[in-house]
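Quick log. Single chain, no ligands specified.
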Amino acid sequence: MTTEGGQPVKEVTSDAQGAWDVQVDKPGKYKVTLDPGSLPPNSQVRGGNNVRTPTVYEGNCSTVLFALEAKGAANNPQQGDGGSGGESSFWTQAAQLTFEGFNLGLIIALGALGLSLIYGTTGLTNFAHGELITLGAVLAYAFNVGFGLQLIPAAVIAVVLAGALGYGQDRLFWGQLRKRGTGTIAMMIISIGVAILLRNLIQFFFGPQTETYTDYNTQAGIQLGPISAAPKNLWAMAIELAVLVVVGLALMKTRTGKAARAVSDNPALAASSGINVDRVIRIIWTVGAAIAALAGIMLGLSQSLKFTMGQDILLLIFAGVTLGGLGTAFGALVGSLVVGVFIQVSTLWVPPELKSVGALVVLIIVLLFRPQGILGRRERIG
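-> predicted structure:
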């Protein structure tokens, strides 16, 4: 048994009835690996997946089951552990992973929304967007741990500061590049350099270690049918969904939202109709950076904080944006939910270390068969 990060916890041997028990020091997500060589002769793990990733909550006992069957009897549900218990265990785990996938998908959607809005209004694929996610989590950590603020006000301050940084980025840097006529490909390459610079600055001030917030770490899980969830996860999902809905409605109903959609469709025509394109883009940068910071805070609350957390989730964000449709806000939400659920549920059949490979598969398939994404529009080039 190890932590999700790979640190060893304990190695145990089950008793004659196949039961085993491990006491852990703190709640969190762990990885349990069953050694197939320790099984009785002619026995195997049903489905071939000998890895489980349970989430342990404060005051709760997490049960991990490995359904066994006789070798060569994969299609016979009456052999092995009796069939019904194994099926029940499979669907319980599938339900838990689906819930965790929705949680992850909403976090990805927050990051993907800002990235998609920036791309829609400027045409820039911003590879430094992951560092904005990390920055939000680190700023909240600084106010929460360094200044002793409770996490909620610390998170609010971090989101506001990140939004101000997004505004400053566009006014002092990206906006100047646009005025000089810098192409989108050159700006994309520049964003890679900005990402490396910000990542190393965050590592310098934050450090290479993994940290957690001081609040909401040790919460007892709530049992909702087959799903076990900490209250913080339920509140976080509600906040994430509310923010996504509010931003979506703002894009559809407000004057600024309509202006942003006009700039996304045709910047030159929008400017000729009296829309201040630079002002709209700066608002989008401000909102996008603030939402990215919120995504980082939620990711740190769900998992833990480290200076590479934004880089690690950036691939999933690109997959969600590409699947939903570049430049579409609602497409980013739909695509991110699909990616989040897909990679979590895939651990039923593949090792957890390889679950993010599913994001690459999604990218490849979408680019081959529907490059405009689920909600994207076909566009003529030339």
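Confidence is low (pLDDT under 50) at residues 73-85.
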